[in-house]
Design goal:
- It is a single chain.
- The protein is α+β, with helices and mostly antiparallel strands and about 400 residues long.
- It contains 17 helices and 10 strands.
- A hairpin with a 2-residue loop joins strand 1 and strand 2.
Length: about 400
């Protein structure tokens, strides 16, 4: 990917602050002058400041990507199929063999199983083969100057400068995603400062070129986030036909005895994972017609990395495949396809018009929209799974 740069702000940044339209955005030169003053106040070395100045510039492509709204929203099926390809699975197994001793050492020291680290690595950068080609300082400078999320990205920019000042990488070599995520595990700079470690003993935490540094840092992050060694993360289960799907909201706690009383069973030829006293939740990522999973607290730790059920399920299911466990029994429907954002917005508007609180009409089917749909389903004697299945859409007189 080729990134284009510009020193002009005319087409890059709105003329006013999106959060306070009475406050005009300063010129980029004035803004940069204040940034450099703040950098000096943080004790950054003058040699570092000299090295980073050529990269404190704006990038038109970053703004385009940040403002871009996808035309489609992926369902569980379209999301999972793309990320659990056989090519990704086989590549992960090869990396598991290649780094077997390193991964065993990390598990012994930090409690993170090899397959989980491999799954994160595979989903984030395809096992370190694509780290992004945007200069991180340039990307973060652009996003920090843009008034929409200036405060967040300004902190990340200052964190990136501190990483360079500490000698972990040079300004020119510091590259990553257009949003400022860096390294083989795509840490934001502030996360890097908190959790990155020098695992290979070369006196710097190099999450770009050192796989040992990258995977160990990821393990440290997940352990500090609450990962419990030896605990499972998810297991596919079978729900009885009479099941109250409103219970599968991912929040209600169950013990194994509770699951048995509800008639929930494991897949054929599988035993229960974990311990009988473990607290688990139920997740239905594709509604009552799709797969059902019980998830342990470790699943919530995965979501600390990326707060998305689909992402966390991708990590968990890919990890199972990499360790040789049975793959998901549920199969992708032949007609699976992403939802147009216009359809999601129409669904939200229809629910809103009927008095259900979706949290707004934005084309993104989040937790508020799910809860609103679940309430509509309850009141209309439909399976209350919070998923826009065919029966629900017919009741709403909607077609995707």
């Amino acid at each position: 990917m080729v990134s284009t740069t510009s020193n002009s702000t005319a087409t890059l940044i709105p003329a006013t602050n999106a959060t306070d339209e009475t406050q005009a955005t300063p010129s980029f030169d004035r803004w940069l002058e204040q940034l450099i003053t703040d950098v000096r106040r943080q004790g950054i070395q003058e040699t570092t400041l000299t090295s980073i100045k050529p990269y404190l510039r704006l990038n038109q492509r970053v703004i385009e990507l940040d403002q871009q709204q996808p035309e489609f929203t992926q369902t569980f099926w379209t999301y999972i199929d793309k990320r659990l390809s056989e090519i990704r699975v086989q590549a992960g197994k090869l990396q598991g063999f290649r780094y077997e001793s390193m991964l065993k050492k990390i598990e012994q020291e930090h409690g993170l199983p090899a397959e989980i680290l491999l799954a994160f690595w595979g989903l984030e950068t395809n096992y370190g083969t694509y780290l992004g080609n945007f200069n991180t300082l340039e990307a973060l400078t652009t996003l920090a100057y843009d008034p929409r999320r200036s405060s967040f990205f300004r902190k990340e920019l200052l964190a990136a400068i501190k990483i360079i000042d500490q000698g972990h990488i040079s300004a020119g070599e510091m590259k990553g995603s257009w949003a400022g995520a860096v390294g083989q595990m795509q840490f934001m700079p502030s996360v890097f400062l908190k959790h990155a470690t020098d695992a290979d003993g070369d006196q710097k935490a190099d999450l770009w070129k050192s796989t040992e540094d990258a995977l160990t840092s990821a393990a440290i992050y997940l352990k500090r986030a609450g990962w419990q060694a030896g605990q499972p993360w998810l297991q596919e289960v079978i729900l009885p036909r009479s099941f109250d799907y409103a219970l599968a909201d991912g929040k209600q706690d169950f013990k194994r005895d509770d699951l048995a009383k509800l008639g929930i069973t494991t897949l054929a030829n599988q035993s229960w994972r974990g311990q009988a006293q473990d607290t688990v939740n139920l997740v239905l990522p594709a509604g009552y017609e799709g797969p059902a999973f019980i998830v342990w607290p470790n699943f919530k730790v995965i979501k600390r990395w990326n707060n998305s059920n689909n992402y966390a399920l991708s990590v968990g299911l890919l990890a199972q495949k990499l360790s040789g466990q049975a793959s998901m029994q549920a199969k992708t429907p032949a007609n699976a396809k992403p939802w147009p954002k216009t359809f999601i917005a129409q669904l939200q508007q229809t629910l809103t018009d009927k008095g259900y609180d979706t949290g707004g009409v934005d084309g993104w089917f989040g937790s508020r929209s799910t809860q609103a749909l679940r309430q509509f389903q309850k009141e209309n004697n439909l399976p209350a799974d919070g998923y826009p299945n065919q029966a629900t859409l017919q009741k709403l007189q909607l077609t995707p």
